[in-house]
Design goal:
It contains three helices and four strands, in the order E-H-E-H-E-E-H. By secondary structure, the protein is α+β, with helices and mostly antiparallel strands.
Length: 85
């Protein structure tokens, strides 16, 4: 199976521009993901802090974290190389 078989979690918060960019990118490619809003989910916030992350978005794909909207890294971890912008 493709990228949709991967475990993908996005840690977000309200008002985060790049959180929206990551979600838009994944939705446009038909990739399923879970979202954790750190402003409402204390366990998610604690997990991020424990991992040394203090900003959102953090996208975790099969255990590998991406901070911010890094299209090249998303494509790499999703196993795709979309050339569209």
């Amino acid at each position: 199976m493709g990228a949709s078989a991967k475990s993908i979690v996005i840690y977000t918060q309200p008002g985060c521009l790049f959180c929206g960019k990551v979600k838009e990118y994944l939705v446009a490619r038909g990739v399923a993901f879970a979202e954790r809003d750190v402003s409402e989910d204390e366990q998610a916030m604690t997990w991020l802090e424990d991992q040394g992350f203090f900003a959102t978005p953090v996208t975790v794909i099969d255990g590998q974290a991406i901070v911010g909207f890094n299209k090249a890294r998303l494509e790499l971890l999703l196993g795709r190389s979309d050339k569209e912008d």
